[in-house]
Amino acid sequence: MWREGISVVNVIPKFCLAVCMLLLGATVLTGCASVPKNDPEALAEYEKTNDPMEGTNRGIYSFNRVLDKVVVKPVTGIYRGLIPSFMRKAVHRFLQK
Question: Cα separations (Å) of 22 from 8, 16, 48, 67, 88?
Answer without folding.
Answer: 21, 10, 31, 34, 40
